[in-house]
Design goal:
By secondary structure, the protein is an all-alpha fold. The protein has a domain of 99 residues. Helix 2 packs antiparallel against helix 3. The two termini are 12 Å apart. The relative contact order is 0.19.
């Protein structure tokens, strides 16, 4: 709170309505885009497209259709959690961290199939987790 009694972009608009700014907004946008990329990745895997490399003797070897459904469902959850962040709720931050972590794990196990794509999504998820853990952007108290 400043001397004029108006918040300056720290989680709430000056009118009192909930809105996010800063790193939480960045995380929400990145989660929506990352979720959409995972949805497209899942659709391509379900359609058993020719762009995927099939690796033999891999520890996390599922068939391509199973991986497609995993990425499709996870992508929808990530995109929905990203959209929920714009409401400013604390539960959305917690859910965002959880689904971004699950997405990182799924893409780590997906590395042999599409290494560049998986690394990009892992990096996006790492930035999302970092942005959600940075904090809400509260001003320090002037005691």
């Amino acid at each position: 709170m400043t001397a004029t009694g108006v918040h300056h972009g720290h989680g709430r608009a000056s009118g009192g309505g909930a809105w996010v700014t800063g790193w939480t907004g960045f995380a929400g946008v990145m989660m929506i885009f990352g979720g959409l990329m995972a949805i497209f990745q899942g659709i391509a895997a379900i359609a058993e497209d020719d762009v995927f490399v099939v690796t033999r003797n891999y520890a996390y070897n599922f068939n391509l259709t199973s991986w497609g459904w995993i990425h499709l469902v996870l992508g929808v959850l990530v995109a929905l959690a990203g959209a929920a962040l714009f409401g400013g709720a604390v539960w959305a931050r917690v859910v965002g961290i959880a689904v971004a972590g699950l997405s990182m794990i799924a893409n780590f196990m997906w590395l042999p199939y599409q290494p560049v794509w998986a690394i990009v999504i892992i990096a996006v998820d790492a930035f999302v987790i970092w942005a959600l853990c940075v904090g809400t952007g509260r001003e320090p108290r002037a005691d």
